[in-house]
């Protein structure tokens, strides 16, 4: 077995990426404090071709060298917007027809593996602060909450790991399963 070289990967250019069909998902970062986490989430969103990223509150914004260090240029391909308050992003996305979903441990949350996507539905996934999670005001405004099952002692994943798990799950349910 041989690893593929970069020129063998057939990656889309930024222009091709912007024109291609996107996963009907928006990612909302609710007061994420680490620039490295922000950059990594941009890169993950590029990998799954999400529609947009909403940066809220204290969440850092491009251009910033600490974001670019982990984004590796994904801030150029992913559509993004900044909102001073997370609820502004939630309200705008709701107007655009997104179902608002927190990724959080909460009462009545639905386990990710049990959540079923609906064809034609658009989803806004809210990821919270590394310490405090999704803000209480946003939790009051969501349509539902999904939780990643966990079996260890720490009771949490890093936000970037959570985003990767959830986005892969949505990608596999929306794109992979519907193309079979």
Structure, briefly:
Helix content is 34%, strand content 21%. With 180 residues, the protein is of the alpha/beta class.
User: What percentage of amino acids are in beta strands?
Assistant: 15-25%
Distance between the termini: 27 Å
**CATH uppermost class:** Alpha Beta
Q: Summarize model confidence as the mean pLDDT.
A: 96
What low-confidence regions span 5 or more consecutive residues with pLDDT below 50?
Answer: none
Q: How many DSSP H or I helices?
A: 7
Overall, the morphology is globular
N-to-C SSE series?
HEHEHHEHEEEHEH
Radius of gyration from CA coordinates: 16 Å
Q: In what order do the strands lie side by side in the largest sheet?
A: 3-2-1-6-4-7-5
* Main sheet makeup: 7 strands, parallel
Proportion of helical residues? 25-40%
CATH topology: Alpha/beta knot
Question: What would CATH call the homologous superfamily?
Answer: SPOUT methyltransferase, trefoil knot domain
Pairing-aware structural class of the strands and helices? alpha/beta
Q: What CATH architecture would you give? A: 3-Layer(aba) Sandwich
Number of strands: 7
Count of discrete domains: 1
Question: Can you give keywords for this protein?
Answer:
globular, 7-stranded parallel sheet, Alpha/beta knot, 180 residues, alpha/beta
Please tell me about this protein's structure.
The protein is α/β, with parallel strands linked by helices. It has one domain (20-176): 3-Layer(aba) Sandwich (Alpha/beta knot). Helices cover 34% and strands 21% of the residues. It has helices at residues 14-19, 35-47, 65-71, 74-77, 86-95, 136-139, 159-176; strands at residues 23-30, 50-56, 79-83, 98-103, 110-111, 122-127, 144-147. A seven-stranded parallel sheet has the order 3-2-1-6-4-7-5, sandwiched between helices. Strand 1, helix 2 and strand 2 form a beta-alpha-beta unit.
